[in-house]
Design the sequence.
């Protein structure tokens, strides 16, 4: 028996890396009975034969996991969002941030394609300052940027990173630019849809700069399926740090009097658009139909 990490999962096979070697494994039937699905990123115990084939015997406890994309034990998520093609969507960015925060994963924000939207640079520098004030790491990148390698090396070293974002924002292009040997497929933007075609077909952890990077299928929408309305404020850091100052315990920062969060919005300490997104997400969660 040995211990390793699932690097790739395709067609019912799990490719487990252990001590520099790769093993093609299948999951035991007991996993299906217990409704356990091994995920890329899982640390597992497996048994193997001499031909580097084996069976996964145990999936170890996860630090965190995502459902879309299916991946576990992530240290950080680099959320890539473009200035144009597809057009920047602040609501979508905040959806990603809430999802990442709620899974106890550190978010990093990359704004891309600033060279093809040079007239928008001032606007995105303002967004950069807004999100940095909240406490996020934020980078402004161009399509062709000499600092891509040094910037990514700084973030990726010794970490397991998921690269996330809407289709067509340049996730795969970004990775190919710094390591052409990856030969990852990239797609063109569909002008009619204003979004990219999904070109990444499966999740795979790729060795890069002493860490592991997952290039994942793109997203066009996100839903807060397992998030309760009362939890939402915890995943907006600027709201979380002020909620203890609200007059009423259990304040939802909506219509309650003497709310420290609403006061911070009035005082310009919390941006209007971030608070508007909090309200929109809160109402969306409250109106969600119960699942049985």
Sequence:
């Amino acid at each position: 028996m040995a211990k390793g990490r699932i690097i790739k999962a395709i067609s019912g096979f799990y490719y487990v890396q252990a001590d520099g070697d790769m093993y093609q494994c299948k999951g035991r039937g007991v996993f299906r009975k217990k409704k356990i699905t091994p995920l890329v990123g899982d640390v597992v115990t497996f048994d193997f034969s001499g031909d580097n084939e084996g069976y996964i015997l145990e999936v170890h406890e996860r630090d965190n996991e995502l459902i879309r994309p299916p991946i576990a034990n992530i240290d950080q998520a680099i959320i890539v969002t473009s200035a144009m093609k597809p057009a920047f969507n602040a609501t979508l960015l905040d959806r990603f941030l809430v999802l990442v925060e709620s899974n106890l994963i550190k978010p990093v924000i990359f704004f891309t394609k600033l060279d093809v939207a040079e007239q928008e640079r001032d606007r995105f520098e303002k967004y950069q300052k807004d999100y940095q004030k909240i406490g996020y790491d934020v980078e402004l990148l161009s399509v062709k940027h000499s600092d891509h390698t040094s910037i990514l090396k700084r973030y990726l070293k010794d970490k397991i990173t998921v690269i996330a974002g809407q289709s067509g924002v340049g996730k795969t292009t970004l990775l190919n630019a710094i390591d052409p040997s990856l030969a990852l497929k990239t797609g063109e933007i569909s002008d009619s849809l204003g979004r990219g075609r999904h070109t990444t077909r499966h999740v795979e952890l790729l060795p890069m700069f002493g860490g592991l990077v997952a290039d994942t299928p793109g997203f066009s929408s996100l839903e807060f399926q397992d998030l309760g309305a009362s939890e939402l404020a915890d995943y907006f850091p600027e709201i979380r740090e002020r909620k203890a100052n609200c007059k009423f315990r259990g304040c939802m920062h909506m219509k309650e009097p003497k709310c420290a969060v609403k006061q911070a919005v009035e005082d310009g300490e919390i941006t209007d658009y971030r608070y508007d997104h909090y309200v929109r997400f809160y109402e969306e969660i409250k109106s969600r139909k119960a699942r049985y």
Notes: The longest strand covers residues 2-10.
